[in-house]
Design a protein that fits this description.
The complex is a heterodimer of chains A (about 110) and B (about 110). With about 110 residues, chain A is mainly β. In chain A, about 0% of the residues lie in helices and about 60% in strands. In chain A, strand 6 and strand 7 form a beta hairpin. Chain A is globular, with a radius of gyration of 13 Å. Chain A starts with a strand and ends with a strand. The model of chain A has no long low-confidence stretch (mean pLDDT about 90). With about 110 residues, chain B is mostly beta strands. In chain B, about 0% of the residues lie in helices and about 55% in strands. Chain B is built from no helices and eleven strands. In chain B, the strands form two sheets. In chain B, strands 2, 4, 5, 6, 9, 10 and 11 form a seven-stranded mixed sheet that branches. Chain B has a four-stranded antiparallel sheet with strand order 1-3-8-7, with no helix packed on it. Chain B is globular. At the A-B interface, strand 4, strand 5, strand 9 and strand 10 of A face strand 5 and strand 10 of B.
């Protein structure tokens, strides 16, 4: 079983839609959770980071962690074509970042 | 002013050759990493150095040898390149004790072995 599982998509939605991206993880000891965004031919850039359970909001982005279910989510409101990218969930475990497979998202104008 | 810079950005080479990738960070972080991203975009850690000391060495062929001359630099040397080594290699850095605040990645080195 992989430490972090993420649906690779691809996911295609119309502009303005609410996007929901999800990951599950296996180790209940994980405490720090991150979302990275990666544009084509670029390096991953940190989008959101959360600690423990709960929600964290930053503009149109909301990160949610449910430790009881070992489930993390990223919501994008009022999605824009510029949000088209690959979104990677990542979890800090044993001195390293462990990534999900990444979800390729396309926002259609 | 680039925070984590890698050179070269692109590398095309023949099987059997030896090549190196260099990475430098100006963030003052004390830990640096090499990650490999395969064709399906999956990012997997290869090595990690903290203050020039190797702390993570995942299951990587010993043809790959990292070197950290100081905490701002991390290089990756690959011997006897194989077709399966084709991938994008990312360097990253973080502050070890507060690594949970995020890792900063370089823009990657796209290695193609022909």
């Amino acid at each position: 079983q992989k430490e972090v599982e993420q649906d690779p998509g691809p996911l295609s939605v119309p502009e303005g839609a609410i996007v929901s991206l999800n990951c599950t993880y296996s180790n209940s000891a994980f405490q720090y959770f991150m979302w990275y965004r990666q544009y084509s031919r670029k390096g991953p850039e940190l989008l959101m980071y959360t600690y423990s359970s709960g929600n964290k909001e930053d503009g149109r982005f909301t990160a949610q962690v449910d430790k009881s279910s070992k489930y993390i989510s990223l919501f994008i409101r009022d999605s824009q074509p510029s949000d088209s990218a690959t979104y990677l969930c990542a979890i800090v475990g044993a001195q390293k970042l462990v990534f999900g497979q990444g979800t390729r998202l396309t926002i259609n104008p | 002013d680039t925070a984590v810079s890698q050179t070269p950005k692109y590398l095309v080479t023949q099987m059997g050759n030896d090549k190196s990738i260099k990475c430098e960070q100006n963030l003052g972080h004390d830990t640096m990493y090499w990650y490999k991203q395969d064709s399906k975009k999956f990012l997997k850690i290869m090595f990690s150095y903290n203050n020039k000391e190797l702390i993570i060495n995942e299951t990587v062929p010993n043809r790959f040898s990292p070197k950290s001359p100081d905490k701002a630099h991390l290089n990756l040397h690959i011997n006897s390149l194989e077709l399966g080594d084709s991938a994008v290699y990312f360097c990253a850095s973080s502050q070890f004790r507060t690594g949970n605040s995020g890792y900063t990645f370089g823009s990657g080195t796209r290695l193609t072995v022909v």
